[in-house]
Amino acid sequence: MKFKIYSLLLTLLVATSAFAQEDHFYYENASYKESIKTVLAHREGFGLSNPVLGLHENLRLVFKFDDISPDVRDYSYTIVHCDAEWNETNLSQTEYIDGFAENPIIDYALSYNTTFEYVNYQLKLPNKYMKFKLSGNYALVVFEDSDKEKKVLTQRFRVFENVVSVEGTIHRATQDAFKGSRQEIDFNIFHPQLNILNPREEVKVVIMQNYRWDNSIRNLKPLYIRDGQLNYDYNRENVFEGGNEFRYFDNRTNRMNGENVFATDFHRPYFHKTIKTDEVRANKKFFLYKEMNGKYSVESQDQEVQDYDTECDYNFCHFTLQLGAPLLGGSVNVFGALSRWNANKSNEMTYNFDTGAYELSMLLKQGYYNYQYVYVPQGANKADHTNIEGSFWEAENDYQIFVYYRDMASRYDRLVGYRLLNSIENRK
Known about the structure:
Layout: H1 2-12, E1 30-31, E2 36-43, E3 52-54, E4 61-67, E5 75-82, H2 93-96, E6 97-99, E7 103-104, E8 107-110, E9 119-125, E10 130-132, E11 136-144, E12 147-160, E13 165-172, E14 182-190, H3 199-202, E15 203-209, E16 217-220, E17 224-226, E18 229-232, E19 239-241, E20 247-251, E21 261-267, E22 270-275, E23 296-298, H4 308-311, E24 314-322, E25 330-335, E26 350-352, E27 357-365, E28 367-377, E29 398-405, E30 414-422
């Protein structure tokens, strides 16, 4: 049994790179070292928020990650400015960084009283060593031994100027009345403080669903242009599949089975969680319930655990999706913030012909998790979340609208506006 467990551990510790990008000038959420786990990025004090910060806002972004190792590593970080498509901009770091371009990560702590030994690393931006001069897309790059070629992870975040305002609503798609599976995002951009001469060329809008990049809408042009206002009231171009509510399970304690956990077992030296067997929901009725739109929270229900960052343990979580036959021509993946919204080998399921089900084991830190199952056609860079989960316009989703501006004289994309909409709270 011990040999099997260690073999499973080695199999699970796979570098996670989103949809296999190899271009070093394109930045994504990815880990390049097998032992890196639980990469988190959010606004300080708001653990479930997105890593988006105002340029002159009196707040910081928090970045955390674990290295499953008993040894402290020599990790450093830098940031890279990117365009709206996450390609590195043609700017020197002195143009967008106030301070030092490279700094060591000095905030770290060893795990305590856990079956897995790990080191938790943290940093906050901006800090006294590094501040932002410009708005736009940024990538945090962590590397080892002061060698930028030894990349450990990359993490996207955004810094925006509050120059334009965005107002919008979400409703059942106008041209989807019969099927009822899609959500339409209509919005207006108001820019009285920004003189835009050629809106269709100088303004770029990105709409993301639940902070997913793979199915984002990125090529919208304003439908109507008025004095100080751009209108994006389309019927088809601004439509997303509503999907379904995310599945969830409670992994906050090893003393009992949390919600949607079928079994908790200890196979020395590690704990194993068997998640209840899931079924395809595409042909079932929609049921609305409150969840976290694909995110997760690291936490514990055990009273003796005081520091979630260093005292929450890691468990092998076993997922099962019952399906009479394998889906040909692609892969089935467990998907959400727990996979950093990526679909790759680290979260790809294997079909078991003996049980008639897809299976996957993931090494996850204790906490409360959302997830869903997606189908990824071979060679595709977009995950299909409707094939297995179904799609309903009533589903709750968060939508992020980013407004970029670049005039003819500029060398980079300014992020001049940001708005978060919810399909229920902002429903029309």
